[in-house]
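Table S5 (text form). Sequence records supplied for joint modeling of the four-component complex.
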Amino acid sequence: MSDIFGRTLKVAIFGESHGPAIGCVIDGLPAGLSFDWEEIRREMARRAPGSSNLATPRKEKDAFEILSGYFNDHTTGTALAMEIRNTNQHSKDYSELKVKMRPGHADYTGHVKYGGFNDYRGGGHFSGRITAPLTFAGALAKQVLSGEGIYIGAHAAEIHGIKDRPFHPMGERAELFRKLSLSKLPVLDEEKGKEMEEAILSAQKEGDSVGGIVECQICGLPAGLGDPFFDSLESELAHMMFSVPAVKGIEFGEGFGFAGFKGSEANDEMIYDEGCVKTVTNHNGGILGGISGGSPVNFRLAVKPTASIGKRQHTVDISRGENTDLSIGGRHDPCIIPRAIPVIEAASAFVILDSLLTDRSETYGR
Amino acid sequence: MSDIFGRTLKVAIFGESHGPAIGCVIDGLPAGLSFDWEEIRREMARRAPGSSNLATPRKEKDAFEILSGYFNDHTTGTALAMEIRNTNQHSKDYSELKVKMRPGHADYTGHVKYGGFNDYRGGGHFSGRITAPLTFAGALAKQVLSGEGIYIGAHAAEIHGIKDRPFHPMGERAELFRKLSLSKLPVLDEEKGKEMEEAILSAQKEGDSVGGIVECQICGLPAGLGDPFFDSLESELAHMMFSVPAVKGIEFGEGFGFAGFKGSEANDEMIYDEGCVKTVTNHNGGILGGISGGSPVNFRLAVKPTASIGKRQHTVDISRGENTDLSIGGRHDPCIIPRAIPVIEAASAFVILDSLLTDRSETYGR
Amino acid sequence: MSDIFGRTLKVAIFGESHGPAIGCVIDGLPAGLSFDWEEIRREMARRAPGSSNLATPRKEKDAFEILSGYFNDHTTGTALAMEIRNTNQHSKDYSELKVKMRPGHADYTGHVKYGGFNDYRGGGHFSGRITAPLTFAGALAKQVLSGEGIYIGAHAAEIHGIKDRPFHPMGERAELFRKLSLSKLPVLDEEKGKEMEEAILSAQKEGDSVGGIVECQICGLPAGLGDPFFDSLESELAHMMFSVPAVKGIEFGEGFGFAGFKGSEANDEMIYDEGCVKTVTNHNGGILGGISGGSPVNFRLAVKPTASIGKRQHTVDISRGENTDLSIGGRHDPCIIPRAIPVIEAASAFVILDSLLTDRSETYGR
Amino acid sequence: MSDIFGRTLKVAIFGESHGPAIGCVIDGLPAGLSFDWEEIRREMARRAPGSSNLATPRKEKDAFEILSGYFNDHTTGTALAMEIRNTNQHSKDYSELKVKMRPGHADYTGHVKYGGFNDYRGGGHFSGRITAPLTFAGALAKQVLSGEGIYIGAHAAEIHGIKDRPFHPMGERAELFRKLSLSKLPVLDEEKGKEMEEAILSAQKEGDSVGGIVECQICGLPAGLGDPFFDSLESELAHMMFSVPAVKGIEFGEGFGFAGFKGSEANDEMIYDEGCVKTVTNHNGGILGGISGGSPVNFRLAVKPTASIGKRQHTVDISRGENTDLSIGGRHDPCIIPRAIPVIEAASAFVILDSLLTDRSETYGR
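The corresponding structure-token record, covering 1464 residues in total, follows.
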């Protein structure tokens, strides 16, 4: 079930970087939802390549077509399918990569798994391009959540050692998230943003790339979403996030920082605030026992440097069974974070909407 | 599906800390497997309370009974069920906790989710005690994997800022993992282990607790396990790990360290080594594109300090709707890491066996 | 996932006829439900052996114990586990059956599937005894549905060629279903019931058994439950019903009778009745396009004669690899229908409650 | 999960009769399979309208395009997506049907379920047209099974009371199935076929339709596929079959005929035949305890008369809330069986391949 995700709301994604089309089928969207397609296109454009000097200059419009499930400007309640035709494929760029395994990519693991039958052109199904349908599905979810007062934002918390200041753990305003979403490199501290930009462009000049950390925040979430154990909100979010290429770590709240904490520092004390139960702090990232507590859900993702680099690397040629080296030509992202941010926001939204819909059956009778 | 996990191999867990019994049903174990029950009991004992001065002195034998699925010393191929009777319940210890929400626990989030119907005694279904059936299921998996030459070990990589040295990223020997599994606080550097022990006992004296980091390594895994996107090995392992109470972060390979890396440093170059493709380094923790590459799978888990502490904390009394404070009496773990380690090893084993069994259908025809 | 069923409401069953215990884990029951345990015991007793002269005289109390998920007389919202200890096992009765495959049973197919590791005592996991936990799970569902005004009944529509009159397709009263549930052989026409009883007892005398048809009706179901295609109400009910041993056919509404119908006879015309849309007839068994329409759901199940018979039959001895014959001694049901009826009602209830809970997420926003 | 089916092999279908496209995503197809696309097109053409005087004269080429998962003439191992553009839509034919609920159709049940948001044009997602992607997915499965020596055939066992002779329960030859697949109305007895044809054309003249029974046989299946209880082969096949519009009943082997059998007549005795265990008869349709036994799997499906008829029927106008009547114009199938047969064969193949792939993990170690 590699290409299908979800409990109540499900998405099946398909496609290869250089095949005829990529897309998705979304099953479980309730009937009667209406979408602002301009806004969906805007979210897709944030992820698309060619949008800024920080990303690959490849131009792909990622124009999507709705194939089913939307009628008279509303969801029908049955599967909503979408496709994006692949139009800007440079197949000849990738011919050498059939036999030379790119370090840091899934070329070799995919080759073994699929017995050599995988589509090697541009990474095939492993391509970051396949996050476009995921972004689409999540962008729909984001709009539904917005109607519930739930909003999601993310920023580059760190790029190659340069750190932005963090979101306030008790939550930021929707306006800030909106503003960030319009930026080519969303940060809170503009100065740090400039330094990050320089680091990215400098890596690009060297034919290299840089990694970083994305911080994501989900505000407005009611208490009670998620489950203990296997469907904990942390489990579901982490499951989804590690589906996003290049993500290599996730931490909620203080995360790895807890290693230096005592219990008396780590626990979020509770108080009544205007008749509502609140936590005074939010070290736990809004989730306890796998269930949301009403505070914002905060998590951070480690994003590794783009694996495609121009610098020459040692690798193997599997057709000859010998060692070789490789410089990956073509147009690559010197840092994937600017384009990963909308994917991460969208993917989070999908998980949260799935939890929200699942919760409807869990709260039967109330 | 909160209490059911798995794709091909599934486990359903049940129970509350103070109910009649806890246990699990395992569906999908192939027929004809034979287990060394003494070894299973040994793994269970590693997790059980009362085993060392670093853990709660509560004595629970966690004696399990097989209810089905095992006949003539082999699995039958149908559901294997197990139960552990709860025998050492101090219900009166918990009466105050019905109304006072313990900070850092799921008392409040569970109360909201279940509309006040949750079993509040000892955390109910949120209790760490429910990891006993998970440890059982995973210990079975561990034995099956052992027959495939796959072995798993973990150690306390850090406790309250004191750091052990890491596993070698290219893999440790099975003997080391065996030796670690016999230790009450598994570490590589004995000196650091003593410091950690002091930190734990010192926190205990203050009525406080400490957090840390567990490093886990899976050796002997063949290349080709896992899938791109939603069933990536990272997704599956992370999903499971966030089901273990107190885990608040996971990183694979360099994880958050990638934020300071360049691509040329992060990519693992490949070479032929005695005719086999190997990576020279293992920054990516043995997984690329969600699929194992043949190097050990390395990951680290952030474990927060035990939420149950004797120190007085501010919280709410939901029966009176007012603020109050609370000192949690009774017998608690000043650091959960020594007891979490066997759970983490077992839970990892369960995920890997599930992937191995899933892979059987994926490699049909080969 | 052989032993796990359900979409939103899930049940995992376990156990073998002669193992220590049988039982189930139910995941997805909303919190706050309260059950009348006497009524559950009554439903279990309807299925239990030894209750009438029409069933095997084996005495099994099928006394169940709740292990988790029920606290302060309400469901907690987490997994509800139940076990029944096996107490009346006559293991020696079954020793010959280790090697002689009983015709009409799963002895041989199970032997092949599980490579000879299956528990052969009393059919092991294939035993009809494993329907006890299913009956339990369904009896809980039945009580929840009852609170929604949904009630379910079944009767012996036919036994060995003797036909009872059918339920009225537009629905029967709850009182009739209650009365039927108190009968050892539920029929509408008492005369036919006596004939059936004679046919059963006559077959028993010959060391033989008889088959028949069960008709089941679900009343009070609102329109809109179920889905088109793969989760059609018919698909879900049929899936469950073929899990009940001895069921070999299912038909909804006119079922196989449709083969002689014209469209103008088969279609259920619609009218407004006191402002509500009604069908004039109910040939389609209350389901169109996989979705309930508000009329009762009617279906009939073919139940084959009990495979265990005293009459001598040709079969194989797999230990010697030669032909042999076999007379199955011991105490068997000359007709399984009286004991199958409560299983069928309960299993139906489980499916309907699952649909009802699933519907809660599908109707989000309404 | 209405639009997703399968355990190890999964298919997600999408589309509406009058939307831009219909199609499917198949997840879990092993890598390295090669398909004869001409043969797939032939299977699709059997289902397509306009192919004979017994079917609707609507012309739809059902030309499919592979969007992903197939590269260098082999499956890649990742999701295989397919779409069929809708080209021959007569939207204006259906305008009246927005408000007048067609008896026997899902118009009303769909209207209630989806709160009026369903696509009402041509039945929308309820249209029989959506079986085209299912036929596609199953046709792929059929080819894979063929390589395993498993072949599937079906014929019109009965149409409007006229009965063809049955398949031999111990199996027919692949050549017969091939021959049947080339016939516009597959029957064993040509004379009966002519009578059936007359009955169909006669009903058409009256503006009416007729129902019937399809018999399907799966030959060459090894013993050991399927599972006890919830994933019994009967459960899986029935689940799938009730997803095919117009199917209202299924019976395996003697099915409802068992109601007149004694156990001694119903049990299939076993013998050694050239060293292999065989059953002498095949009353149980090749399945015992949910598991295949090596004999052919035989089942029969009740297919109701096409609901779309020209004859005037009483129904409701939901826009006015009043009774009305309706004559459904346009081009309809006077009997759906000729076009349902390839769907049924394909759908069966999908289930069997799913079982075969699932079995690979279940037989781990053997």
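Note: Residues 337-362 of chain D form the longest helix (26 residues).
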